[in-house]
Amino acid sequence: MDDLTARGHAxxxxxxxxxxxxxxxxxxxxxxxxxxxxxWPRKAVQWLGMKTNxxxxxxxxxxxxxWPEFLAEKALKNxxxxxxxxxxxxxxxxxxxxxxxxxxxxxxxxxxxxxxxVLGEPIEQTDIDSIGLLWRPTAAEVHLAAAR
Length: 148
Fold this sequence. Notes:
This protein is of the alpha+beta class. It has one domain. The strands form two sheets. Strands 1, 4, 5, 6, 7, 8 and 9 form a seven-stranded antiparallel β-sheet that branches. Strands 2-3 form a two-stranded antiparallel sheet.
């Protein structure tokens, strides 16, 4: 068993929680966040001409229809243990972390403060949102989520 698999979902979850403040920094600088995916590989992978076992990131294609194939290709090529997809959906930034153990997601509302939009406090959810590559909710989980 490789090191990341042994540390598991909880390890990556804490890693992501620790980097959430960076989303606020990017928003303050740019007033937007371009869609991107971060991948935590199970083993060392080639990235930018170097071998690494750290998380690697990619900007998502402009054409949203290309996202499923792009995500699947990057997940396979980079031996994905975990994926974090971050994008703007309506009036919020949504970040979804997915491993085979389940998902955690954060919804950061985009709030209108007069002449400027700012990100509000994140709402964290477990096994509600999914990317659908490494984990999918069961019918029971979908039913429970709809009832909430």
